[in-house]
Amino acid sequence: MTVTHSFYLAWKYLNFNRLKTATLIACITLVSSLPLALNLLLSASEEQLMSRAKVTPSLVGSKGSDLDLAINTLYFASEPPDPITMASVREIEESDLALPIPIATQFLARGFPIVGTTLDYFNFRELSLASGTRFGVIGDAVLGADVARSLGLTPGDSLVSSPETVFDLGGVYPLKMNVVGVLDRTYTADDRAVFVDIKTTWVIQGIGHGHQDLAQPDAEELVLEREGNEIVANAQLPQYTEITPENLASFHFHGSTDTFPITAIIAVPPDRKSAAILQGRYEVTDAPLQFVNSPQVIEELLIEIFKIRNLLNLVFFLVIAATLLAIALIFNLSLRLRQSEIQTSFKLGCSRGAIVQLIAAEIAVILVVSGGLSAIVTVGVSHLKQDITRTLIS
Amino acid sequence: MQTESEPIATKSSLQADRGETRASIAIADVTFGYEDRTFGLHIPHLAIHPGEKIALVGASGGGKTTLLHLLSGILTPNSGSIRVEDLDLAQLSEAERRRYRISSVGFVFQNFELVEYLNVLDNILHPYRLNPALKLDKRVRSRAAELAMQMGIQDKLKRNIQKLSQGEKQRVAICRALLPQPRIILADEATGNLDPANKRRILKILFEYVETHQSCLVAATHDHELLPDFDRAIDLETFHADLSALNVRSR
Questions:
Q1: In whole angstroms, what is the distance from residue A197 CA to residue A138 CA?
Q2: Across B187-201, average pLDDT
Q3: Helix segments in chain A, DSSP class H
Q4: Rounded to a whole number, what is the distance in angstroms from the first to the last CA of chain A?
Q5: Rounded CA gap, A298 and A73, in Å?
Q6: Could you give the C-alpha distances from A206 to A113, A168, B176, in angstroms and in order?
Q7: How many CB pairs under 8 A join A and B?
Q8: Residues of chain B positioned with their CB less than 8 A from the CB of A12
Q9: Rounded-to-integer distance, Cα A84 and Cα A132, Å
Q10: Average pLDDT, whole number, for chain B?
Q11: Which of A374, A360, A361, A359 is nearest to A323 (CA)?
């Protein structure tokens, strides 16, 4: 039997038994590509987690889980830590030990995290704009590349923040934000965030608001009580849910900025010495806040991931072994079912070697197709690993 | 038609010189038995001449298929010789017997033994893909198409084998057997599964081939109604022997 004839017959057999062939190919493709793809993804996650941690080594936040604080501040994922106040930002600023960048991540807009911060964040991350401008006033929003693509938004469009709780009448109401810019893709968590001025998050939270000027004569029916300069409005007073050039001036905050909440501070010390001094300030036992060295925290996380990877590899090894045994069994049963065909071929003048060659050709076709598909899956995962990893981390 | 164990000259054998393909089988003092049985075959002398159509009759398990396998080289005798023209099958190596079988023997089986995953044309061409002794080229393909036309299945060449009737399947099996232009046609209950009309039709096709090519046909059959159509019928019971008495080691 020539090689061409054996491959021709093998192809005819496999094509005739399409379901069996497809199942075998799917099994082999999965067992060969899955461990490789998963290892690629794990490596990419480790790389991505660590690279962002390395450029953002100093974080300050409320005491509690340092991992939650790091994951939320660096990747805007997981539950936000307990809030701290803007007073902490001012303290760091006054110490001259670091540039404090406030981060507030309590709110979402259509599933994407709203990150309240200052323009320093854009400079610190070296974020560039694909279109539009950075936020200038409260209510302006700058979208990460994935958010803009996913929601189909461009500068000039608007985006509404998600209400926190539907039944909490005194809670957070949605705010219609104006999209003023879209960032270039960075392949980091910034692609999946909506950046607003820190004050905008306070407006969403209800700390800041805008309404009709009660001192004006036409607002008389909205006044409940007037005592000197202090005017108390009645329940009929409507609050604005959209910030426009016309009502922008009416927006104001009650109380001291020092008491306003944020979730964390990214500290950008000018040198190592300043970083060490800053860290020391938070390591005293009665300090209300904690200083987090994010590379150290992420490394501890990666050690756990590495343990899981080893466990996964062991599981994959067992699954591969079991699958290969099952495939061998299928081939064996298939050969038994084909005894009559094999006997006929032998009676016609075919050698046992030719039969082996035919079976080998069938196995080769299955392996080549599976190998090809496995390569496509692996290349695909390798190509998309940054996106997949970012989605998984988010 | 005569029923006997010794060869006789027949009309077709006398006309042998006119054929293109010559066949002559000579069996001399052949014994064969299976390991687990003392009972076996002993054929002192049997000659089959070109153009002859021989029917093998006898009870099931009486050795008809064994004799066909001996003639095709699938089995080798314990002793004696089987000569096909100038070839002594017992002296051939396994590979040489396979080459002899694929190129000189056309085997037609009772259950057709077609390959279910191949279409009609690929089934007819199948022997050419099994052994490099046969070369598959344009001439072979065109001969396959001609044979299919003669059998009336030319419009079914691309059809899946499972979609054919029994009679059509047997015609495909005959096309496969005849395509290499064999010197010997061996039919093992080739008409057993067919209705009377199809039986006659299949035999007619085989007989025409034998007469045209001056090859020879050895057909195992239970169907005594068909025996008058053959030149000779050989009752295998006449070749039954106790091998231990003959001092032959069975295999």
A1: 6
A2: 82
A3: 3-16, 18-55, 66-75, 86-95, 119-125, 145-151, 198-205, 272-282, 294-337, 339-348, 352-393
A4: 57
A5: 12
A6: 18, 13, 88
A7: 64
A8: 117-118, 122
A9: 32
A10: 83
A11: A374
Residue with tokens 């044979």: B147
Residue whose C-alpha is closest to residue A194's, from A175, A171, A172, A173: A175
Joined tokens for residue B176 = 């496969």
Of A6, A9, A349, the CB nearest to B102: A349
Give the integer Cα–Cα distance in Å for A141 and A167. Answer: 26
Q: How many CB atoms lie within 10 A of CB B36?
A: 6
Residues written for chain B: 251
Dihedral, CA atoms, B231, B237, B238, B242, nearest 10 degrees?
Answer: 150
What span, in angstroms and rounded, lies between the C-alpha atoms of A380 and A7? 29
What is the per-residue pLDDT across A50-108, written as a single tens digit (0 to 9) for each?
A: 888 999 989 999 998 999 999 999 988 878 889 999 999 999 999 999 999 999 998 99
Contact A31, A323 (CB under 8 A): yes
Q: What is the DSSP letter of A258?
A: G
Q: Which long-range contacts (CB under 8 A, 24 or more apart) does A279-283 make?
A: A279/A58, A281/A95, A281/A97, A282/A60
Please give the distance of CA A163 from its chain centroid, rounded to a whole number: 21
- pLDDT tens for A155-169 read 999 998 887 654 555
Distance CA A207, CA B48 (A): 112
A16 and B117 within 8 Å at the Cβ level: the answer is yes
A285 touches chain B (CB under 8 A): no
Q: How many residues does chain A have?
A: 394
| Amino acid identity, position A325 | L
B/e letters for B213-244, b = 16+ CB within 10 Å, e = fewer, are: bbbbbbbbbebeebeebbbbbbbbeebebebe
Q: Find the DSSP H helices in chain B.
A: 11-14, 64-72, 94-104, 120-130, 138-151, 166-178, 196-213
Q: Is A338 helix (H, G, I), strand (E, B) or coil?
A: coil
Cα separations in angstroms, A364 against A83, A372, B131 = 61, 12, 20
User: Is there a contact between B131 and A8 if contact means CB atoms under 8 Å apart?
Assistant: no
In the 8-state DSSP scheme, what is residue A326? Answer: H
